[in-house]
Known about the structure:
By secondary structure, this protein is mainly alpha-helical. It has one domain (about 1-230). It has helices at about 1-10, 15-45, 50-90, 100-125, 140-170, 170-190, 195-215, 220-230.
Amino acid sequence: PAFGLFIFTIARDPLRIIILIAGAFFWLVSLLLSSLIWFIAVKASDPQDERLQKGLLIFGVMFSVLLQEAFRFLYYKLLRKAIEGLVALSEDGCSPISIQQMAYVAGVGFGLMSGAFSMINLLADALGPGTVGIHGDSQLYFLTSAFMTMVLIFLHTFWGILFFHGCEHRRWWEIAAVIIMHLTVSGLSFCNPLYVGSLVPSYLLMAAAAAWAYVLSGGSAQNLRRFLLCKC
């Protein structure tokens, strides 16, 4: 889905491509820092203590989420400065891209990189050793992982819109809502291999975030109806 979003909404605009790549880079840096901290914590602890290792894993996931949102905020501040520069350089005093469009493209950049890393981990598991489900475990691992990757890509896109809107209008509760949703979706992954317990709530949150982002972007029920009926 991220590649479809890229091709149909971003690929033809060089400025949007730059914003997307920069957003992907910010997400990548946040992952690198959180992975480094988790690696140090694991190496400094007792590897035989399973309870401690599980606690460190939960800490690593939650810390990674908070770091991603911190970098999303830093990216917003950077783009806000970029808009001011574009306005100063333009002849008509207008920016060639709005903050809403930047929020969307930045969200796609976060989601694209997140999905790419999810697929890399999935392909690494597919190489073996062993066969998924051979000892009675669920054989839906790869299918559910693909669906989870898709929902995360869309969620990052919607979260980008919500987060930037909250920063732009100083609605800090919108930023808090994004962080809570991100923590919730990441925490749901610990329900696996009970995949229904993670996929269903994640898709419900995605639907809610999509509707919220649509309204904040200026959408209406009438516009949605016209789109579904293919009316101009």
